[in-house]
User: What shape does this take?
Amino acid sequence: MLRCPFCGWPDDEPVTTVSVHPTPSGVTMWTRCACGSLQTRVLRGATAVVTARSRPVAKATTA
Ligand SMILES: [Zn+2]
Assistant: This one.
């Protein structure tokens, strides 16, 4: 099972589903991890494959 490389959260258990977009090639899901990392998932049958993920959201930004 894959896990978030930033916080170790199991990819099988998305914390927050941001949005779901049906496309001709399948369903694309955007989810947010416990650490704030935004993930792009593509549903292939019953399995959601994480195809891309952002870095965790920084609590404070530096200018
Ligand atoms: Zn995470």
